[in-house]
Amino acid sequence: QVQLVESGGGLVQAGGSLRLSCLASGRTFSSYTMGWFRQAPGKEREFVAAISRSAGNTEYADSVRGRFTISRDNAKNTVYLQMNSLKPEDTAVYYCHAVVGWRNYWGQGTQVTVSS
Asked: Can you tell me the distance from the alpha carbon of 103 to that of 93, in angstroms, rounded to the nearest whole number?
């Protein structure tokens, strides 16, 4: 069982920045593929970004590419999402996601609100 705990959400004005963190449990964090998803009110959960186990590869949704950066620190069991140039449409609950073997794990989510 892997537990994921997000932090760093909050209220920010458009054009501002936030950094989300996700602390994962377990001794083999470097073997987890990590990612971030988000869900806005009335919408389905959508992919935001992902990072490979060695951090050698990253992927981004078109809507955030160039503004968001995903990274990880395997020594700290933590994955980050640096969000710059935030827009009101980025408002959502952001969820940390881990793929461990064939299993998927989710955090409880952290609210990000961007005011115009």
From this structure: 22
